[in-house]
Amino acid sequence: MVDYLRINQANWDARVPVHLDSDFYDVAGFKAGGSALRPFELAEVGDVAGRSLAHLQCHLGLDTLSWARLGAEVTGLDFSGAAIEQARSIAAECGLPARFVTADVYDAPRALGETYDIVYTGVGALVWLPDLTRWAEAVAALLNPGGFLYLAEFHPFTNVLDDDTGATVIRDYFDRTPQVWDYPYSYTGSQTLEHRTSVQFEHGLGDVVSAIAAAGLRLEFLHEHDHTLFRRFTDLVEADGGYRRPDGAPRIPLMYSLRASAR
């Protein structure tokens, strides 16, 4: 296998200054009191006040700190030291208590050294991990008895469709070959990245659920959503703070979310 970890760390370190300046992340809006969380996440996770929460693959920490604003005792983990440095800076500027740790997600139990009521992860996180079994085992090791994993992700079905209209199947849903991308931009805009190569891994919905079950977690729900966070296909229209197929058009799953509890 290619050295995905080294390649992706360089790529994500390069994304940090680009994302900080982007409208997509709207760091200024967050510092002014905004939240990076989506309404369906808030409804599905529920009250977090006084609960310990670990956010895996936290990037700039905006989601992490959004949970802190709701009263959670938060820890964020990411493999990009540049991102963690910025997360700490944003937390300090906003006066939000938070712990941020630089580590690979597979090393999270050792790196964090404690357990939590909630492990939160997403969006767009799993595509960077080659082994979901190891990931789910790390999640299970981080949970207190009765605690739960909450995952919100882009639906893997969208990746088999053409990138324009999403009307035609052009890729193999069951292909698990690592995908090496050479692309000069991030998803936030047109600033050129210093390190443009990345390695990604496709996982089907069954892969995710099976890994979670094998790690001993009990699935509470799996929800498929007909909306997403950006205009994934050209025919998507803005609605309720996201994007979905226009009225009357056949709907497809664009995102999913699940919750699984430790026994």
UniProtKB/TrEMBL annotation:
KW Iron (keyword) present: no
Residue ranges of every copy of the Methyltransferase type domain listed in the record: 56-149
GO MF entries: methyltransferase activity
UniProt keywords, alphabetically: Methyltransferase, Transferase
Taxonomy, superkingdom: Bacteria
Keyword match Nucleotide-binding: no
GO term, biological process aspect, one: methylation
InterPro entries for this protein: Methyltransf_12, SAM-dependent_MTases_sf
Gene3D superfamilies: Vaccinia Virus protein VP39
Signal peptide: none
Entries under PANTHER family matching the protein: TRANS-ACONITATE 2-METHYLTRANSFERASE, TRANS-ACONITATE 2-METHYLTRANSFERASE-RELATED
Protein name: SAM-dependent methyltransferase
Organism field: Nonomuraea rubra
